[in-house]
Amino acid sequence: MERRVAEQLRSALGPLGLEAHAFKVGWYNAVLQPAFHLPYPEDTLAFVVLSTPSMFDKALKPFVNKERLKIIRDPVDQCVSHHLSRVKEKFPDQRVDIMFDYEMLRSRKPKFLAQTAAHVAGAAYYYQRKDVKLDPWGKKKIFGVCIHPKYGGWFAIRALLLFPAIQVPFLEQPSPVDCVSTEEKRIELLEQFNFHWQDGRYRDIIEVKERYSEEQKAYFATPPAERFRLLGLSQESQ
Asked: Please, which residues have CB within 8 angstroms of residue 85's CB and are 6 or more apart in sequence?
């Protein structure tokens, strides 16, 4: 069942520049405090959905051109929501729950921790302070960051798809590719991400096979309120 669902997701999402990676809810819950647990049995099948660099041209721009009068919030969020809702329709006999990376619980906690989900699914390695043996940061707050073995930091984690009726007790957990394997590189990565994230150098911590286009870089470097103009949308149409 898991393979059939994964193949359907791959055929539906791949042409849009999106990836779906399977995991069991239990893998995710096992590494987090109870307050962050997903409220499903541990063998429940789930997928973490990533956007790759090609999503901008394959999904976002066509979506904006077709739906420009209906765009009332962040175009990327609305584009991903639109396409995942259509994917959900491909499983009429299954309940499919969708959680987006921007959604919050009433407690103001995120509905899910995106980087943890990507790590346990084997999609991208979540580098954290604990991955550095000789910690040079003292009392500074250091945030972790996921690196994809193919795209480096040129990707984003967008959503979870959960299939509550599908239990996969024998699903084998893949290990994420440890592509930033030296102590020096991990320190460099966390330094760049925490203190120089605006220049985006952390995204190229490894040699990448694909990165954002110049147009896409300009879009994401622009304050959200001004991005509508870049896509030919007037803010009045919001």
From this structure: 98
Distance, CA of 108 to CA of 237 (rounded, Å):
29
Report pLDDT digits (tens) over 39-77: 999 999 999 999 999 999 999 999 998 987 787 788 999
- Tell me how far apart the alpha carbons of residues 211 and 74 are, in angstroms, rounded to a whole number: 22
Neighbours of 66 (CB within 10 A): 10
| N-term to C-term CA, the chain | 41
In the chain, count of helices (H) and strands (E)?
Answer: 9, 6
The span from the CA of 59 to the CA of 46, in Å, is 23
The predicted structure's pLDDT at residue 30: 98
* Single-letter residue type at 216: Q
Q: Residue 236: is its pLDDT beyond 70? A: no
Instruction: Please report the sign of the dihedral spanned by the C-alpha atoms of residue 131, residue 158, residue 71, residue 105.
Output: negative
Q: Is residue 27 a contact partner of residue 45, using CB atoms and an 8 Å limit?
A: no
DSSP 145: E
In Å, how far are 45, 48, 55, 182 from 19, measured between CA atoms?
A: 16, 8, 10, 27
Is the whole-model pTM more than 0.90?
yes
